[in-house]
Amino acid sequence: MVTFNALPWVERALESVRGHETIVVDHGSTDGTLELVRERFPDARLIEEENKGLGGGSNAGMRVASGDYFLLLNSDAWALDGALERLVAFAGAHPEAAVVGPKLLNPDGTLQRSVRGFPTLWRLATEYLFLRKLAPRSRALNAFYGAGFAHDEPREAEFLMGACLLVRREAADTVGLFDEDFFMFSEETDWCYRFRQAGWKVLFTPDAEFVHVGGATTRRDWGPMFREQLRGHLRFLAKHRGAREAERARRLLLASLRLRGVLFPGERGRTYADAARWLAGSSVEELLLR
Questions:
Q1: Before 8, cis peptide (omega within 30)?
Q2: DSSP per-residue codes, 251-270
Q3: Of 79, 75, 68, nearest to 24 (Cα)?
Q4: How confident is the model over 234-257, as a mean pLDDT?
Q5: C-alpha 138: how far from its chain's center?
Q6: Predicted pLDDT at 220
Q7: Which site from 15, 163, 196, 218 is most exposed, i.e. has the minimal number of CB atoms within 10 Å?
């Protein structure tokens, strides 16, 4: 678990996996997270380091972990009764799976759709130009968000939201850990893509349920986090589709965010307009430098 000012949810998250080897990698919390972990979870191994992003922090934890699987759990997510054991049992029954993801629920018990499709120019257009709103159930317009995936039976996915992932150590040993060039957002996208390229599967199971609050950290500073989200798309495309495709994506995102900056009032519109100026001011190569 990677933490950065993780109150108030981190206690519930850690309590839900108590009794298992637990590693907390903290990136500079000042809100009492460190004190809570030390007091309430003395058996957890606590690593304090500079903020290396979610992927970098997860890597630091995995490098010192033991066992056949890594459970990567957000600090605002927690297992329901028996969910972790069912997740591990499912992975054991499917040795071809590098990654297994559970059903995610919102705090009110409703489904949180966690299956995703790899970014392409078309898929980014359906999201950032609102095309998916025209036919919400259409796979052609909603593949980015796993349209047609009912979340009611075990199935293979392109990639899964990183709020809770069970990862087979053997698979991670074959393809490597997270690419730490992805600071925040798209690190799990890249990892699942690499697993699939190496012949492993990414599987979803509804038999294990976890609750995920969602955005508990990113909402605090959404402007910079939104830019990191855009940077993640560009980095993924540059890495796996080439510089030209990433440049096409930059232009697509720039046009869509300029439009959003006009259409949306208030803070939301200003966030989009600021992101558009950021995209307009540099090349993809410069944007990918942090």
A1: yes
A2: HHHHHHHHHHHHHS-HHHHH
A3: 75
A4: 97
A5: 24
A6: 63
A7: 15
